[in-house]
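pipeline: protein-struct stage 2 | run 1193 | Probable membrane transporter protein
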Amino acid sequence: MFELTLQLALILFAVALIAGFIDSIAGGGGLLTIPALMWAGLPPAAALGTNKLQACGGSFFASLYFVRKGMVDLRSIKLSLVCAFLGAAIGTILVQMIDAKLLELVLPFLILAIGCYFLFSKKISEDDRQQVFTPTVFAFTAALGVGFYDGFFGPGTGSFFALAFVSLAGFGLAKATAHAKLLNFATNIASLIFFLIGGQVVIVLGLIMLVGQSIGATLGSRLVVTKGVKIIKPLVVIMSLGMSIKLLWTQYM
């Protein structure tokens, strides 16, 4: 039975602040917040819905900071934002009808592969390179696909978006992280809408954590601007390894 006390609110606020900091740099903050919400007594669906509310705060303020710093060209990713939103909406609807067991089995290895790519690839730098996909093709493939994944399952979405921007759009790592956060905000909003419709959001708790997320995300996004690849690359690798271990442990232990 869930009961929101002052002590519990302060603990979850602190968890959200740390998660927002990590999420704005490397993704994976949900690995902290979702278990914390379930530990607090929320059933799984309500934990996921409430998590989306608080995650919207972190992704919004991180996105706002990146836009203000001129790291994001909104006009060039308008279509990607729309596709990411639609993909997440479709995923959120379908996850209520389809068994996600297969994805659970494959996901740890996909996330581990992302970590290895960031660790060993010589292409990872601050400099932009020649793009593989045009913005339109990127929108209807990577943005739509990762958006669908976020609505359907979720863990590591920020890392998937960042990888797509680096490998397909030719972005430098800091620029990729900034754009990834903007698309992640779009997918969070889409999923939140359908969780609200389903009555799966504890609004008061979500808003408390949203404040913590916003503070953490603002601090983390500042480090992205000032430190760039020096902090993003190792944190992505660490979070990818952590996510893989956590997901494998949940499945097999």
